[in-house]
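Q: Can I see a sequence and its folded structure?
A: Here is a first one.
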Amino acid sequence: QVQLVESGGGLVQAGGSLRLSCVASGGVFRLNAMGWYRQAPGKQRERVAVITSGGTANLADSVKGRFTISGDNAKNTVYLDMNSLKPEDTAVYYCNAISGGSILTSYWGKGTLVTVSS
């Protein structure tokens, strides 16, 4: 069983930066990928960025050029560096991890709130 704990959310002015961190524990040797999703009020959860265990990263078009995802395998941690933040980036950000072989399991953190003021 994988547990995910996010940190780093908060209130920031438009144009500012934040770094989110997610630490994984329990069963981490099986992780295939980790990533970040977000859910704004009244909207569906959307994928923001994903990084595979091999280091391949994929970012949503809406954050390309502003956000960077990276991982530290030694610390079982994934980071999301967010720059040039916009009010529309306001959301609860959730850490996600995928583990398994022929059967994949998805795990979620409890989320961290990011609020960008205009």
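Q: Show me another, different protein.
A: A second, unrelated one:
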Amino acid sequence: QVQLVESGGGLVQEGGSLRLSCAFPRRAADYFRLNSLGWYRQAPGKERELVASISRESNTDYTESVKGRFTISRDNVKKTGYLQMDSLKADDTGVYFCNYVGRLIPWGPGTQVTVSS
């Protein structure tokens, strides 16, 4: 695997849930474990924004609009990141991408999330 691969998106009604997964490419053994991961969202007509991040110590941070609804996590053995999204709103619609935070690597294709009202 040479690039980021996001999955788990789909069409859901408001109030529903989705769980996104992201497989990170293989690099030096400690690269994944030592870096912060992020989930980014690009809504229609808007720039890509960071919505959730998790540090190597598993400290998490969220943009205000998703606090209390989204949960980011990581599996350092599988080199995979996750984003649990609950109580989804129409404003959460967009393409979701994963990447490192601060040390970006080439972007993957993202996964489309569409929340219908």
